[in-house]
From TrEMBL:
Extent of the signal sequence: none
UniProt cross-references to InterPro entries, sorted A to Z: Acyl-CoA_dehydrogenase, Acyl-CoA_DH_C, Acyl-CoA_Oxase/DH_mid-dom, Acyl-CoA_Oxase/DH_mid-dom_sf, AcylCo_DH-like_C, AcylCoA_DH/ox_N, AcylCoA_DH/ox_N_sf, AcylCoA_DH/oxidase_NM_dom_sf
Organism: Kitasatospora albolonga
Keyword Ribonucleoprotein assigned: no
Name used for this protein in its record: SfnB family sulfur acquisition oxidoreductase
Taxonomic placement: Bacteria, Bacillati, Actinomycetota, Actinomycetes, Kitasatosporales
Length: 391
């Protein structure tokens, strides 16, 4: 069990070094990282946000964000898998009863993993949730619906399902065992990037869920909240990690494989002043993404210590700024990898394009343009961001 921040960061850094050598091959073969995820779980890293009163390390958002950045710098798909795990640990922290927290935090401390069944395809928009919890009359619910992009579900022990109750249409999270009758998980994800996240389809056919496993998620958004800020912070950390990983790969390639342009007059590509200039520009982007990520994480921690409408707004805006910037930095650096490395870098056998594919796929989770809109409204008119869980 991990006990403190320093141990969490050491563990994440060590795992990143373990996972990095095999990341390209796993992506190229679409080899799901079951062994690697089991290794990660065995370290206790997935339990680091369990509150101290329940036996966890209760690390701050700053530590959690850095853990994700480190993991994503090695393997962006692997880092994506536990993102929902931490989001739904946080749901329990915010709205779970004492009994629910004691039970589910105990599960997490014992090494159980949460997946997710949240998004639905073919609806009017992201928050048009049609999966339904219907009271069965015996103290339980029947859960019916189809979920898509269910990252982590294939590897999960528990699958949190976002659903609305049939009588009042209010949003709840049902925590369902992965082997529950009527629940099936299909590995049908075929995205061009994040290829080994197994972000497939979850089908729920009258799955029975006891009332004790249902959390009133709608209450989260009735007051100041950090649910969206924390979830988006982890997405930001993944983008920052992709940027760092792509830049490191570019540095290694240019140092060891690239030839100098004949007009430069230098013996090695690494001496070319034009390449040196470009690497300086890219490193500025990487450093800025890391700095904004750290600033956003500290804003989340400050808001958690003294939560009100103002501190929640500051945290959401800080995370929105970091996410918008880190996403564009990841895309630019992953693309520039080829610009600085030369023709040989485009060989499919090298699989250097996985960084751009991961960045392009991951940054589609939610549009940066809306984040910038909310930043502008806040800065210019003092309008706080909405409480919809995506900021």
């Amino acid at each position: 069990m991990i006990r403190d921040d320093a141990e969490a960061l050491r563990t994440a850094a060590g795992l990143a070094e373990e996972f990095r050598p095999g990341a390209s091959g796993r992506d190229a073969r679409r080899e799901l990282p079951r062994a690697e995820l089991d290794r990660l779980t065995a370290t206790g890293l997935l339990a680091i946000t369990v509150p101290a009163e329940y036996g966890g390390a209760d690390v701050p958002a700053a530590t959690l964000a850095e853990v994700f950045r480190l993991l994503a710098s090695a393997d962006a798909s692997l880092a994506q898998i536990p993102q929902s795990h931490f989001a739904y640990v946080n749901v329990l922290r915010q709205q779970g009863s004492d009994e629910q927290r004691a039970f589910f935090f105990g599960e997490v401390l014992a090494g159980r993993r949460f997946g997710n069944a949240q998004s639905e395809a073919g609806t009017r928009h992201l928050q048009d949730i049609r999966t339904r919890l219907t009271a069965a009359g015996d103290g339980s619910y029947l859960l019916t619906g189809v979920k898509n992009y269910s990252t982590g579900a294939l590897f999960a022990d528990w699958i949190p399902v976002l659903a609305r109750t049939g009588d009042d249409d209010l949003l709840h999270v049902a925590y369902v065992p992965a082997d529950a009758p009527g629940l099936t998980v299909t590995d049908d994800w075929d995205g061009m990037g994040q290829r080994t996240t197994a972000s497939g389809t979850v089908r729920l056919e009258s799955v029975r869920v006891p009332e004790a496993h249902v959390v009133p998620h709608h209450l989260t958004f009735t007051g100041p909240q950090l649910h969206g800020a924390i979830a988006q912070l982890l997405h930001t950390a993944i983008d920052a990690g992709i940027a760092a990983g792509a830049l490191a790969e570019a540095v290694d390639f240019v140092r060891t494989r690239s030839r100098p342009w004949f007009e430069s007059g230098y013996d090695t590509a690494a001496e070319d002043p034009l390449l040196i200039q470009r690497f300086g520009e890219l490193d500025l982007r990487r450093r800025a993404a890391d700095a904004l990520l750290a600033t956003a994480a500290h804003a989340v921690d400050a808001a958690r210590a003294d939560l009100d409408d103002d501190s929640a707004a500051e945290a959401s805006v800080a995370v929105a700024a970091a996410k918008a910037y880190a996403g564009s930095a990841a895309l630019e650096i992953a693309d520039a990898l080829f610009e600085v490395s030369g023709t040989r870098a485009a060989l499919d056998s090298l699989n250097l394009h996985r960084h751009w594919r991961d960045a392009r796929t991951h940054t589609l989770h939610d549009p940066a343009r809306w984040k910038i809109q909310h930043i502008g409204r806040y800065v210019l008119n003092g309008t706080r961001p909405p409480r919809h869980g995506l900021l």
